[in-house]
Write a structure and sequence with these properties.
With 190 residues, the protein is mainly β. Helix content is 4%, strand content 45%. Strands 10, 11, 13, 14, 15 and 16 form a six-stranded antiparallel β-sheet that branches. A hairpin with a 2-residue loop joins strand 1 (2-3) and strand 2 (6-7). The longest helix is centred in the middle third of the chain and has 8 residues, at 121-128. The termini are far apart.
Length: 190
């Protein structure tokens, strides 16, 4: 809940589902509030987010879009103390994709990818990226049914060495987004 006194939780434990963490936001303010990458209108709204399993924090924020907030931190800021909550994932839905390498490069494509009949995003990445090796494991990271964006990760020798983002356009069409790759891998969008 978000009100003039800040952020409040009904339950400090949340169970993950295949598409992420389901959150009900109760906004008791006279204007929209910022909730991660989108605004939550006055009243009750429902969101599905990609909070990782384990301990997380969140604070109500000023609107990210829309009019300037009278909040002293300004648009996109937050007020009050953050609240802590724990995401539990007993079914192991979430796949961690943290890259740990000395130097990582960023990339962006923006091109469209059309999935062939029966093709998955990891299979499409094998067409869309260069530098993949035969022993590389390619898998969707985060929550397996997250929507509208999915992160596809590349594991090499047991470590994540790259992530590639796809944004949903239609059931068979995805827009290639950003990529993060360890510099020494040669991995990049084609």
């Amino acid at each position: 809940m978000c009100d003039k006194d800040g952020s409040h939780l009904e339950n400090p434990f949340v169970q993950a589902l295949p598409d992420g963490v389901h959150v009900r936001v109760s906004n008791h303010l006279s204007e929209p509030i910022g909730f991660l990458h989108e605004d939550a209108p006055r009243g009750t709204s429902f969101h599905v987010e990609n909070f990782e399993p384990g301990n997380n924090t969140y604070a109500c924020g000023a609107p990210t879009l829309g009019p300037y907030s009278p909040d002293p931190t300004g648009p996109g800021g937050s007020w009050g103390e953050p609240v802590s909550f724990t995401v539990i994932d007993p079914n192991g839905y979430y796949v961690r994709t943290t890259i740990r390498c000395p130097l990582a490069g960023l990339g962006y494509s923006g091109k469209m990818t059309t999935l062939r009949a029966g093709e998955s995003l990891p299979q499409a990445l094998r067409r869309d990226a260069e530098g993949l090796e035969p022993g590389d494991r390619v898998q969707v990271g985060g929550y397996p049914r997250a929507h509208p964006r999915r992160e596809v990760a590349v594991w090499r020798k047991g470590a994540v060495v790259a992530t590639f983002d796809y944004e949903y356009v239609s059931p068979s069409t995805w827009r290639r987004g950003g990529s993060t790759t360890c510099d020494s891998t040669g991995l990049a969008w084609k």
